[in-house]
Amino acid sequence: MTTQSEQQSGYPDWEKLYRLFDKIATAQVKTEQWQEEAEQSRKEFEAQQRRWREEAEQRQKKAEEEQQRWKQEAEQRQKKAEEEQQRWKREAEQRQKKAEEEQQRWKREAEQRQKEFEAQQRRWIEEAEQRRKQAEEEDQKRKLEDQKRKLEEEQHKLEEEQRRKQAEEEDRQWKQEEKERERQNKKEFKKLQNLFTSQWGRLVESLVEGDLVPVLNARGIEVDHTTTRMGGREFEFDILAINGKEMVIVEVKTTLRPKNVKRFLKQLDKAKTYMPQFANHIIYGAMAWLKADSEAEKMAEKRGLFVIRATGKSASIINDKDFKPHGW
């Protein structure tokens, strides 16, 4: 579009063209700058993207390495746990095996003690049977001697009938002697019967009495001597272990039963009445036995009595270590 002056002169307005060209050039420069800035921004963005990608790859690689490390540590912990479990299992098996061996050893020892006790019991029975047979033989022998004496007496009476009056006093004396002998024979026979029936108890008493002082001393009861068979019309105590201020009364039973415990406790309640000479002593009770029925030994321990078991050739107190005896 030409101006009016251009139309009039027939020449273009160069100043305006210059300004136009200048604007175009400026715009072109700015466009190139914008393009360069855009290119620079694009490059910076691409570089930033590469950095982000590299950082992402590094983080990914680091995460994978960390995951691999965690996996290795987890495998190591798993392996260690399995090894520890195997070790525990082996130790448990060893403990189980040791316990079974110990149980077998206890079982063998118990069987051995049972065999020894049964053998000892058989020996005691055989000895008692021998004494009984010996007593029967002696009794039979005395009966034969009595019969022989009676026959001799009858013969003597027939032969001495004519001299009866002269020998009447001698005959009366002889009869008295004969009665005394018969009385002594009956007394001896009764003693043998009592010996046979009480033999078991005396055997146990001898076992217990021999070990009584040291086993009581070990439990803090400082007795220094023993005595046996103390009694009266209303009581009889088997063994007494004594010192100046304390006394342990021991009741001996071949087979301990609950009724024996109850009866013995009643006697202990009256012990100082029965034996006033020991009124200032502290009296403890103990029950000794070969065999116990119905857990009578536990009943005795709960009532504050020492429980003494006779085994083999010795006796021992089987109360708990923290047992406190009842004092009367």
Overall description:
The protein has 328 residues and is α/β, with parallel strands linked by helices. The protein folds into 3 domains: 13-119; 120-197; 200-317, Trna Endonuclease, Chain: A, domain 1 (3-Layer(aba) Sandwich). It is 70% helix and 14% strand. The longest helix has 146 residues, at 14-159. A hairpin with a 3-residue loop joins strand 2 and strand 3. The protein is built from 7 helices and 6 strands, in the order ααααβββααβαββ. The mean pLDDT is 84. Strands 1-2-3-4-5-6 form a 6-stranded mixed sheet, sandwiched between helices. Helix 2 runs antiparallel to helix 3.
Quaternary structure classification: single chain
Structural category? alpha/beta
Proportion of residues in β-strands: 5-15%
- Biggest beta-sheet profile: 6 strands, mixed
- Structure summary, number of beta strands: 6
Main CATH class of the largest domain = Alpha Beta
Mean pLDDT: 84
Low-confidence parts = none
Architecture of the largest domain in CATH? 3-Layer(aba) Sandwich
| Count of domain modules | 3
